[in-house]
Amino acid sequence: MTGSKKGLWLTTALLAPTTLWFLVMLILPLVVVVIFSFGDRAPTGGYAAAFTFDQYANLASRLKAFTNTLTYAPLGTLMTLLVAYPLAYYLAVKVDERWKLLLLVLVIVPFWTSLLIRTYAWIFILGGRGIPSLLAMIGFEDVRLINTSGAVLVGMIYGYLPLMVFPIFVSLEKLDKRLLEASSDLGGSPFRTFIQVTLPLSMPGMVTGCMLVFILLMGEFLIPAFLGGGKIFFIGNALVDLFLQSRNWPFGSALAVTLVIIMLVMVTLYMRLTTGSKTERDQSVM
Length: 286
Fold this sequence. Notes:
Blueprint: H1 3-37, E1 40-41, E2 47-48, H2 54-57, H3 63-94, H4 97-108, H5 115-126, H6 131-137, H7 149-173, H8 177-185, H9 190-201, H10 203-218, H11 222-227, H12 235-245, H13 249-276, H14 278-285
Antiparallel strand pairs: 1-2
């Protein structure tokens, strides 16, 4: 056996467990969902074997869920980025090394608790006995925060902030400080240095953070259900209702497949745009 064949067999053996795991845990469930999406609802609920496009033809009945998801997921991602970037910048650039690790741990501490518990905490904070009661004490009566779009956005930002902070922090942490010094020596103001040097070089972390948060928000159901009071209905909420309540598995599968396709298209377009502009950013930095 030649050396090239030995290397091929070794590579195959090393990749086999990962490939098997990928097929069983990701591809196979997705194939099952696709098959279900072309079926019919059984009389008692669940799946009945068939081949029909009726489920996809009925997608318009959940148009509001699609509209809400495609509105709040990008908006929540953008707002999370606006909150996370200054925090990541402060941790990476301004904080003394002695305190950096402690502050990073504090950022991730909320992830040690279930999202359900953290969302319940926001129900109390935004509910009648929380912030509104404090505002009432200083004269602002009848302020409603819970069961609003603002409450949903707050829950999104809080719930997924660490996933945005850490990729940006890593990009800023690796930033060559000599570039900042060179910009200052050439007469660049702090603002101009940030716009032309720091921001472009931290773009990979921003892209990674946005992808992580956006993908999770597209499938979110708990935050809109608890903080939106059922008034803001996501595709995730529709899937929970179809699979667990009405037991219409084929229609739920059609919704899930459509959601996956939309996410693939949006992520692909976003990655193409960011990759296409990478050369321009590099040239601007140079």
